[in-house]
Design goal:
5-stranded mixed sheet, 3-stranded mixed sheet, alpha/beta, 49% helix, 11 helices, 246 residues
């Protein structure tokens, strides 16, 4: 509950991309930003989140898969997704980074197959130099600005985008551990919320089949552009000004 309270009325990294949207003139906030600002105004007025916090299977899957991404692939990372970080200067700005390294803020996305493919395909092209970071910023606004925001909150000069979906072998291990250990309790997930992972037919869950060479883990680390730090900070400050003075 503490984590939820720390996010009430604050602009958070997960939705920060909305504040980067502009209207047709390119000078003022766009519709997504204005709606988001009004949500924050409502939260501050009534003292609680306007979201009732319904937990979907995709959200539960993401939290569980993130844990296994760390277990199977991440070395030298610290998983911190259960923490809420508040900007040291601007208390109306917070976020819950997935992980961090010495100099890097990290975001792990565990999407279902279609979106996983689209995201990893873009990251692979980025790694090969076929597209640029500006293309990611354009086509994956939510992911890009979330990791930039969290890197700012963590005071890290670098950011890392990660996409993960288990292999068939990893998924089988996940199902066995969920069935026989307290992994769900460890992650703060109610048993009924995570049961679908062991109750569904395996093909109805996200995984890369055995014998398929497509990577199930793709990452890209970059130095956060100074211009983007300045831009995003200005967006948040302008949003707070509009909220408090509007």
């Amino acid at each position: 509950m503490v984590e939820v309270l720390e996010r009430i009325g604050r602009f958070t990294s997960s939705n920060i991309w909305k504040l980067t949207t502009k209207d047709r003139t390119g000078k003022d906030f766009g519709a997504p930003a204005l709606t988001y600002i009004e949500e924050k105004r409502a939260e501050r007025s009534i003292g609680r989140s306007v979201d009732l916090g319904a937990v979907s299977q995709s959200l539960t899957w993401g939290k569980i898969a993130e844990y296994y991404c760390d277990k199977f692939h991440l070395l030298g990372y610290e998983l911190i997704s259960d923490q809420t970080i508040v900007h040291p200067k601007y208390k109306f700005w917070s976020g819950s980074p997935d992980a961090k390294k010495v100099q890097t803020g990290v975001e792990i996305k565990c999407y279902e197959p279609k979106k996983f493919y689209l995201y990893t395909h873009a990251l692979l092209k980025l790694k090969e130099g076929l597209i640029t970071l500006d293309d990611i910023k354009k086509d994956f606004k939510e992911e890009y600005w979330q990791v930039v925001s969290n890197s700012i909150l963590l005071n890290k000069p670098k950011a890392e985008l990660i996409a993960y979906m288990p292999t068939e072998k990893q998924l089988i291990q996940m199902r066995e551990e969920i069935e026989t250990t307290n992994v769900l309790e460890k992650l703060g997930i109610e048993p009924w919320q995570g049961r679908f992972i062991i109750e569904k037919e395996i093909y109805n869950l996200p995984f890369i089949p055995e014998g398929i060479e497509y990577p199930n883990f793709v990452n890209y680390e970059f130095v956060v552009p100074a211009d983007d730090i300045i831009f995003l900070t200005k967006c948040v400050l302008d949003a707070e000004k509009l909220l408090t003075n509007g």
